[in-house]
Every structure is written in structure tokens, then in C-alpha cells.
Specification:
By secondary structure, the protein is α/β, with parallel strands linked by helices. The protein has 9 helices and 5 strands, in the order H-H-E-H-E-E-H-E-H-E-H-H-H-H. It is globular and about 70 Å long.
Length: about 230
């Protein structure tokens, strides 16, 4: 009745839709809602099984694989801009920094890019500062290494100091992942790699919609005149 449908579709309609829709279209849907241009990048893992923690610990030791979601998000409004989904552990997150940030810059011009020490690389700083003309805040690893022995102009600059207040905004990425897991769960129910990617993309779209709804409600309430 709400959707004004003349008849209810077959229950497999959503399954067929999930299998056939292009991942590129889902990425474009995710990036439709962006307000400002302070971007933080982070990653988190999602379990590909519903096995209990007890069973996992008692099972034979083996290299456990999980699904890793890498996201670049606008930290002030906490909106996801772009995502990358991989099977983990397979490769270091640092490899995906460049493609994620470049794709985000094609959506809107960036002013600040924030990342943790996992993305510490002079190449990443050069991409953000010299090519995209934005400010990169990525602390250098190995704090015990003297500045004179640190390689890279921008990595040395990070050793000299950076805005802690600006860097603290990166925590919003962890908040986004936490909300996704609390709302939709940390387990992926799909079994095929393709449908697992679609499921995570749908969760990101649902999160952006949820977040946008909250922002609209807050703005309406805050601008509503006070009745005497």
C-alpha cells in the first residue's frame, strides 16, 4: 500500500536485483550526498560467517579470512564518499589509499585528508598535497626515529608537528563503522563474493540515508521558531 503496487513481486526479485545491479552504480549512489570536503580514510573488517566465538576459538588453527571495508568519509557530517571492498588478509590498506582519495577528489575538491599511521607514506602525502592541492594529516610511524633519519619532506613535516584537533576528526570514521555494525550487524549473510560486495554496498547506502534523515530532522528542529 505504501509503495502503491498493484501486486506483490516474487520473493526472489530482490535477489535477482542484487545479482544483476552494477557495482559502479552502487558506488555512484553512495557518493550522491556530500556536504563539505574534509575527508578521513579508515578500514574495518566484517565477518563472513555466523560461527560463534567459541567455535572459532576451538576450531583448528587456520588463517581466518574476513571481508574488509575501506571507506573515505566526510568527517564533519559523517557521510560515506567512496568505498573499496576486499578479502582480508590479502594486502596492506596503504595500497588502496591513492585510488580511494583520487576517486573522492573527482566528486568534490578536497581541502583536508586525514589518515592514521597505517597510511604513512611519502607517496600519499605527495598525492594529496602536490597533485590534489589539499592538506594531508597522516602521522609518521616509528616515533623513536629522529627527524634527520626520517625519509621524505612531508613525513619530516609530520614529525615536527600537526594539528591534533584536526587529526581527532578521523575518529568519525570509526563512529561510522560502529553505527553500520550496530544497525545492520557485523556478519555478512551472503556466500558468493559478488553478492557479499553488494550487501556491504547496500549497507553503506542505507547508512548514508539514515544519516541524511537524522541531519534533516536536526536542522528542521533547530530552525523551528520557539513558540511563546
Amino acid at each position: 500500500m505504501v509503495l502503491q503496487l498493484s501486486r506483490i513481486p516474487h520473493f526472489t526479485t530482490l535477489q535477482k536485483f542484487t545479482e544483476r545491479i552494477s557495482g559502479t552504480i552502487l558506488e555512484k549512489i553512495i557518493s550522491l550526498i556530500i556536504f563539505t570536503n574534509i575527508v578521513g580514510i579508515d578500514s574495518s573488517g566484517f565477518k563472513g560467517t555466523h560461527a560463534s566465538q567459541y567455535y572459532t576459538e576451538r576450531a583448528k588453527p587456520r588463517r581466518r579470512k574476513y571481508i574488509k571495508l575501506l571507506l573515505a568519509a566526510e568527517v564533519l557530517q559523517q557521510i560515506i564518499c567512496t568505498i573499496k571492498i576486499r578479502r582480508a588478509p590479502t594486502r596492506h590498506d596503504n595500497i588502496d589509499f591513492g585510488p580511494l582519495i583520487t576517486k573522492t577528489s573527482e566528486i568534490l575538491p578536497l581541502s583536508v585528508v586525514i589518515g592514521d599511521k597505517a597510511y604513512d607514506s611519502e607517496v600519499n602525502h605527495i598525492l594529496v598535497r602536490d597533485i590534489l592541492h589539499a592538506l594531508s594529516v597522516i602521522p609518521a610511524r616509528y616515533e623513536h626515529v629522529p627527524i634527520r633519519n626520517t625519509h621524505g619532506k612531508y613525513r619530516k613535516l609530520m614529525k615536527h608537528g600537526y594539528s591534533k584537533m584536526l587529526y581527532s576528526q578521523r575518529n568519525k570514521d570509526e563512529t561510522i563503522v560502529s553505527v553500520i555494525k550496530r544497525l545492520f550487524g557485523e556478519h555478512i549473510t551472503s556466500r558468493l563474493v559478488k553478492t557479499q560486495n553488494r550487501e556491504l554496498s547496500f549497507r553503506c547506502i542505507a547508512y548514508n540515508t539514515h544519516r541524511l534523515t537524522n541531519i534533516v530532522v536536526i536542522s528542521v528542529v533547530s530552525t523551528k521558531p520557539i513558540q511563546p
